[in-house]
Write a structure and sequence with these properties.
The protein is α+β, with helices and mostly antiparallel strands. A hairpin with a 2-residue loop joins strand 20 and strand 21. The structure holds iron/sulfur cluster.
Length: 450
């Protein structure tokens, strides 16, 4: 099977990566909770969940919204947000009221810019350098108070990493990362600063506000190519943003050194290996605290699965790997193994060796008019035919070349075409295409061993 993959030569040194970004000529049309997107299966709402953290009450409200207004399912995104599909275009007001009552819309003006991913196991497994929840709440609150931040695009991403390097590798525009002691790294595109730990959220906000200013200036300039939505699109690069943060924050300093594996977007940044998310199973932390990690098959949770996740009455953490962490389940009176079995019984992925680990797909047909195939059904059939393995490459199925939601980093890229699927191994940001109709299982196994 290995011979079925015919890898193309990598691109010449210095050539732009296929995902290199340019400023946009149009406004950002990213969907939100208040700005519904019209899809083939009805209206779609994207609810931002900073850090993926939901209280029990918020989780119940989202399940209620999906059931009453949508198709009953909850769809997890690659940023740990939730999409509700199959809404009526006139449901916006009722949805907003429902989310508002649950505290999921702290600022209507900022609802699309609260894009923050955070290390999902922070404070639970004893692995990170800090518990990032303080940073998460502080940055979210600062964003919601900033007039300038309203102008960020709905795609601009913050990452808050507890030092383990998981979410820092997800291609955020601005990443905070614990460095140990009283210090934190702040990555602004390809620029790196160090700041005092307590100033890290403020540094991220200052950098974001400087980005808004630079983006507006670039758009208004004579040689304007449009407005930058992401850091990598800023014509002048992020250097001036880093200088601005140093000017305004006494504890900030430029750093020639960068933390390994940060992978934020910038002119020279290459994705490298995909960041691993929490493996499914029971997670035992300091003091014997036990948390659970499960994955939603292809990111979709049925109403029954959501009910099973929320019935223990505690917090939920949605991960950028389309998983769910249930912190400290035993504290809610549920033995961890028993709870895990109950989640497995409703079809959630609980086995780290499952072929469904690392597998994703866009919505495809019939939800998206652009799709050339029912990618979810095809992906499920392919995954069901794979045996259990260990540590395969992530795989992502897309209904067209846009490849919405595809992972950053090395992965197997499966794209529908009019004549079938094209299977490509993406490594270091460059595709290596196979002409052979190799199966996805062969592609994943081949790259792991090869
Ligand atoms: S990748 Fe294409 S088919 Fe899939 S959701 Fe995006 S636009 Fe639709």
């Amino acid at each position: 099977m290995v011979g079925m993959l015919a890898a193309m030569p990598t691109a010449p040194a210095g050539s732009p990566r296929p995902d290199a970004m340019r400023p946009r000529q149009r406004d950002d049309a990213c969907p939100g909770a208040l700005r519904l997107h019209s899809a083939d299966d009805g209206a779609l709402a994207r609810v931002r969940i900073p850090g993926g953290v939901l209280t029990a009450r918020q989780a119940l409200a989202l399940g209620d919204a999906a059931r009453r207004l949508g198709d009953g399912d909850l769809h997890l995104t690659s940023r740990g947000n939730v999409q509700l599909r199959g809404l009526d275009s006139g449901d916006g007001l009722e949805l907003a009221e429902l989310l508002d009552a649950a505290g999921l819309l702290p600022s209507r003006a900022h609802e699309r810019v609260r894009n923050i991913v955070a290390s999902p196991l922070s404070g639970l497994d004893g692995q990170g350098l800090v518990d990032v929840r303080l940073w998460l709440h502080a940055l979210d609150a600062m964003l919601c108070e900033s007039e300038a931040a309203i102008a960020l695009s709905g795609r601009f991403l913050f990452a808050i990493d507890d030092g383990r390097g998981d979410v820092a590798a997800l291609g955020a525009d601005i990443a905070l990362r614990a460095a140990g002691g009283e210090c934190a790294w702040v990555s602004i595109g390809s620029e790196t600063l160090t700041v005092a730990t307590e100033d890290a959220p403020r540094a991220a906000l200052l950098a974001a506000e400087a980005f808004v200013t630079a983006s507006a200036a670039g758009e208004a300039g004579e040689a304007s190519q449009g407005r930058a939505w992401r850091m990598g699109e800023l014509p002048g690069g992020p250097e001036e943003l880093a200088r601005e943060v140093v000017r305004r924050l006494p504890t900030a300093a430029r750093s020639a050194e960068a933390p390994r594996g940060t992978g934020v977007l910038g002119p020279a940044a290459a994705p490298g290996p995909a960041a691993p998310g929490p493996a499914p199973g029971v997670i035992t932390g300091p003091g014997g605290r036990r948390s659970l990690s499960v994955l939603a098959p292809l990111g979709k949770l049925t109403g029954e699965q959501w009910d099973a996740l929320t019935q223990h009455g505690g917090e939920l953490r949605l991960t950028p790997w389309r998983g769910i962490v249930l912190p400290d389940v035993a504290a809610h009176g549920v033995p961890a193994l028993e709870a895990l079995e109950a989640l497995e019984a409703v079809g959630l992925v609980t086995d780290p060796a499952s072929p469904w680990v690392g597998a994703g797909a866009c919505v495809g047909r019939p939800g998206c008019a652009k799709s050339l195939a029912d990618v979810r059904t095809d992906a499920a059939a392919a995954l069901d035919s794979e045996g259990a393995g260990t540590n395969p490459l992530p795989v992502y199925w897309s209904g067209c070349e846009r490849r919405c939601g595809r992972p950053r980093g090395d992965h197997v890229d499966v794209v529908a075409r009019t004549d079938g699927y094209r299977v490509t191994v993406v490594r270091d940001g460059y595709p290596r295409t196979t002409d052979a109709a190799a199966s996805v299982a062969a592609a994943r196994t081949t790259n792991v061993n090869g």
